[in-house]
Amino acid sequence: MSVWTTLKLAFRALWRNKVRSTLTMLGIIFGIGTVIAMIASGQGAREAVADVFRSMGTNLLIVTNGSVSTGGAAGGQGSRYSLTWTDLEALENGEVPTVRWVTPVLQSKVQVASEDANWNTTVLGVNPAYFLIKSWAAKEGTLFDDEAAKTGPKVAVIGQTVATQLYGTASPIGQPIRINGQPYEVIALLETKGQSGMGQDQDDTVIVPLKTYLQKMDRGIGKYISKGQLFVSVGNETEIEHAETQLTSLLRARHNLGPNDDDDFRIRNLAEYAMSQEKSTERISTLLAIVAAMSLIVGGIGVMNIMLVSVIERTREIGIRMAVGAKPTDVMTQFLVESLVLAAVGGVLGLGFGALLAKYMASYYGWKLFFPAATAAIAFGVAGGVGVVFGLYPAIRASRLDPITALRYET
Amino acid sequence: MTAPLIEMRGIHRTYVMGDNLVHALRGVDLVIEQGASIAIMGQSGSGKSTMMNIMGCLDQPSQGTYSLNGKDVSRLSRPQLADVRGKMIGFVFQSFNLLSRTTALENVEMPLMYQGISSRDRHRRAMRALERVNLADRADHHSNQLSGGQQQRVAIARALVGEAPIIMADEPTGNLDTRTSYEVMAILQGLVDQGITVVLVTHEPDIAAYARRVIKLSDGLIVDDKTQEPVRAHLQQAAAS
Fold first, then answer.
1. Average pLDDT in the A210-217 region?
2. Distance between CA atoms of residues A281 and A287, nearest Å
3. pLDDT above 90 covers what percent of chain A?
4. Which of A192, A286, B139, B197 is deepest in the core (most CB within 10 A)?
């Protein structure tokens, strides 16, 4: 029998039981739809997490002071001053070749004020490299440069949150700002960055040149970078681990640590954080995809169920067809194509349903919409596969019927 | 000499029914020439249904050989048997066995689908077959919109459409009233006149009277085989109207 005739027969048989066919198809529609939505939104969620970490800094290593232990009680991270300004110079001079940018980040919580509002925020003292590391550009005004970092002018770069708190909707550029009671001038407003991967509002900040910070906020303790960290940016993502090792050995050598001494500093790798976050997102989306796949299997079982009923109902028809010359394979093909059509039509509709669901989820959670063509092709293939796998058993049963018994079957 | 159309030699058929072995046929020999008009008679349980099933290639003998048109078909596989049925045999059943919610034309076309005949040829040949049973004007009617006699004529058209040399009619008038029966029998007798072999399977002597040769089965054996001058259905039809 020609493909066209077979398809026509299948469509007609399904059309005769419209309600039943539709209900059976719903199982496939929801199955395929949820699989598509879960794959697409899982991808979107992963990208969203990656974006957050990208906003925290590219290929970033954060070096902090280590922990001191006094009489067996560990003082915690940063309690022991070990990083020195000469360590910084060494890095700035390229002693670790994989390092591209480096800046100290000194920070403290302070009160800031405009003429008619005030706010408590974090003030950072950094070198201009900080903006490169975080790929953070000015939305308005101009960021301070290396020169300023050395001379220490009383200028401030502010984040969006601070700007809103102090100046409302007005432009903050050129406005006076008091930090810790001292007058500064706002020279730039930063682009909005949103939350960091750790949940902090990155826009709630005021940034001043390092020199200014050291002169006006916190002198520090002599040669040590006391209340701060070093942000080290590595040129290439693939070199992060290598850079971490090199950095460790450089600092150990500079701090004269023996082979049995513990590190007196700590290096945090943001890429690792990002990775673990992405992994947990991936785990959740895998879990959801598995649940969705389960519903697809349930849909497939629905197809099988209905096909079995159909074979029994049409036993007599099968007998007639066999009597007039239908071979067992003809009968098998007929039923297999019916379940295939059921699944394929359900698959196409499910694809649409899944796309809508993914779109809704993406807009609801503010993700980018991922709807790769490959997913659609796979889903369609899977739907076809479901049709064949779950249609095969009923079709084989139909083809094995004995024509004499089938002809005598009373419905 | 050419081989006879149907040649059965020493046909046995046994079934297992529960713990019992049922001997439905126990050594049947039968030769039917092309163009014959033959009735197979017998009470229920005589083996006539089994005989028809084997003759119609729906079933196979447990023992013995069955040659159709000189070709041994007693040991064929299921697909091969289906092929032989499609080409050699047209069935007419007591309960018509048309597909419901399907037009007369589509019912008649159905056997041709399994012979890989194109949609256009199917349509043309099915229309011609319907014309042969005077139902061309009912081609688009669904089978449930037709009377019993019309349904049986559609079934005859379906049996004819594949140009099969043999038509097996199993109690073809069992569900019909007398007048309609005349009509159906007249068509079947007309087919004999055109050279088609018609095998009637019936337990009614009235129906067997339409055949030229009557075979009686009892307990799985042929107990009588006689030739007679058949009653002409179209004359009865004319007399009745």
1. 87
2. 10
3. 34
4. B197
| Rounded CA separation A261/B202 (Å) | 107
Question: How far from the centroid of its chain's Cα atoms is residue B48's Cα?
Answer: 13
pLDDT (tens digit per residue) in B85-128: 999 999 999 999 999 889 999 999 999 999 989 999 999 999 99
Range 321-340 of A in CB contact (< 8 A) with B: 321-330
What total of structural domains would you count in chain B? Answer: 1
Domain range annotation of chain A: 3-52+280-408, 81-263
Look up the pTM and report it: 0.74
Q: Evaluate whether residue B180 is within a structural domain.
A: yes
Give the distance from residue B87's alpha carbon to the nearest chain A alpha carbon, in angstroms.
8
CB contact under 8 A, A327 and B99: no
Inter-chain contact B110–A403, Cβ cutoff 8 Å?
no
Q: Which domain holds residue B113?
A: 35-54+78-240
Residue A402 confidence (pLDDT): 94
Out of B53, B79, B111, closest to residue A324 by CB:
B111
* CATH number of the domain where residue B99 is located: 3.40.50.300
B119: in domain: yes
For chain A, the average pLDDT equals 86
CA distances from B133 to A315, B88, B128, B138 (A): 28, 20, 9, 11
B41-64 pLDDT per residue, tens: 999 889 999 999 999 999 999 999
A228-234 and A99-113 beta bridge pairing? antiparallel
